[in-house]
Amino acid sequence: MEKKPGKCPICKMDLTPVKMDNSKGLKLSAQQEKLANIKTLTVGYDYVDNKIFATGIVKEDENKTIFINARLNGRVDQLNFKTKGDYIKKGDIIYKIYSETLASTQSELISAIKRIKEDPRDITSQTIINAAKNKLELWGVSERQIEEVKNQNKPVIPFPIESPYSGYINKINITEGAIVMEGNPLIELRTYKTLWVEGKFYSSEVSKIKKGNTVDVMIDGTENYFIEGKVIEVLPQVTSGSAVTIVRILIVPDLPVIRPGMHANIYWHETNVKSLVVPSNAVIRDSKGGMVWIKKAGVYESRMVHIGEVSGDRVSILHGLNEGDTVVISGSYLLQSEYILKKGGGAMEGHNMSDM
């Protein structure tokens, strides 16, 4: 079909003017419907499974940050962990400290133990021993280290400070030779026992996802290994310049390779959702979206639709159809061709998906 007079570009015959039908919809005779094998179905509700796929990034669980602070004043003579990302195990020697207060308390403990051995009834010495042990425990000295001090004749200088926690170093605030004061933050640890996945969901999908919902998460590089995640927060802000909303998901990874910064695939599944459904072959899809043909009072009309989840040979309709509508389930493409022949344009022309 050409828009101006002339000859056919294929057969070179003169073009014949065609009078366009500007009426709304198409009317077909019973014979035409039979030849086109037109079949219809009344639209109704049914129960389907909804699935949503999204991508995201693994983030640190900011609620699981651990701080190791200085328990007493002194000078750091030896620092054993200096690099961000290094793993510290509970009980590892983080650093050795020279502290006059710590050395003095060790001396008091050793001297009191010697006196109590000479006179088991020496109440004063026993009081000093108890007080010294309490001080050492307050400064983070373990029971094993206290026993080592009790069994030797001189203080341990510099004294090794053990880590009270396990985790990966996120920040180090000390260097060898530095003077530290009681309460100074020295090292920040992250355990990675729990992590966040911040998923990017379209705003139209977020209304279905609630706090407490469970999702399946697969981290890049761990194909076919799914982790169950729990939605802990739907962030109120929308990402700048897009219609994407961030959903924060808590995961408990049991693979040591999973770290912040890795990409994740998120799968959300909801069963037995009541929805308007039509057969998949009733929907014609093109770059403008989805369209169906409906029959109304003997006239076939095109209708733009917003489709949802595809489940087998059925598709849920979110917008564009109502319960009781009569939709064409066979012969849709022939109706499309007939419309173009009679009207001179596609049935989707003039429709605007943004209005749905």
From TrEMBL:
Residues 3-18 form the Heavy metal binding domain. InterPro entries: Beta-barrel_RND_2, BSH_CusB, HMBD, MdtA-like_C, MFP_Cation_Efflux, RND_pump_MFP. Residues 276-331 form the Multidrug resistance protein MdtA-like C-terminal permuted SH3 domain. GO terms for cellular component: cell envelope; membrane. SUPFAM superfamilies: HlyD-like secretion proteins. One of its GO terms (molecular function) is metal ion binding. The lineage of its organism: Bacteria, Pseudomonadati, Bacteroidota, Cytophagia, Cytophagales. The keyword rRNA-binding does not apply. One of its GO terms (biological process) is copper ion export. Residues 68-189 form the CusB-like barrel-sandwich hybrid domain. Belongs to the membrane fusion protein (MFP) (TC 8.A.1) family. This is Uncharacterized protein. Residues 194-269 form the CusB-like beta-barrel domain. Keywords: Transport.
